[in-house]
């Protein structure tokens, strides 16, 4: 038997094991992800979706009270986000910016839906001086709708949002205040201003 092989091996002769220290990578901030997504990074956009889609869905559901509609609008928000994310400059929290984007998109949805309805908002009733909507010729109704749309475009953003939510969707002032982050008094004041401006613009 080889004497070298038979030699007793001391524990001190065995080299210590080598350990590799793995440090978990910190998650990227919303701002970093937004910058990457603006540069075409689809994985960054996917991360933003995973991080914020439930919150966006909650806002859409709170405004529409319809789960299927809220799901469609959530997808629409993130499709819209692809085009708009380059405008995010980090001047506010990304979640705040995304909340405003979501509310504005849902308001646009309400506006399109209202335009498809054959209903007359309060402002139109005032301008028509109690004339029946059904008795109006189609051309006159279309002209009224175009005039209303033009008047809405000229309203300040806050007044327009409150008018759409209150007169066209049917929200109460406390609900509008919560959705838009304003006081109930501000909601009432903006609705009054919106109605006044629309009556004046449509006369």
Blueprint of the fold:
Blueprint: H1 3-6, H2 30-38, H3 42-64, H4 67-84, H5 94-116, H6 122-128, H7 138-153, H8 157-169, H9 173-180, H10 184-202
Helix pairs in contact: 2-3, 3-4, 3-5, 4-5, 5-8, 6-10, 7-10, 8-10, 9-10
**CATH fold title of the largest domain:** Rna Polymerase Sigma Factor, Chain: A
What is the overall shape?
elongated
CATH superfamily of the largest domain: RNA polymerase sigma factor, region 2, helix turn helix motif
Major sheet? none
How do the SSEs run, as a string of H and E?
HHHHHHHHHH
Quickly give the structural class.
Answer: mainly alpha
Q: What is the radius of gyration computed over CA atoms, rounded to a whole number of angstroms?
A: 29 Å
Low-confidence stretches: 126-134
Percentage of residues in strands: under 5%
Return the average pLDDT rounded to an integer.
76
DSSP helix count?
10
Tell me roughly what share of residues is in helical segments.
55-70%
The level 1 CATH classification of the largest domain is Mainly Alpha
Overall number of domains: 2
How is the quaternary structure best described? single chain
Tell me the distance between the termini.
115 Å
Number of strands: 0
CATH architecture of the largest domain, by name, is: Orthogonal Bundle
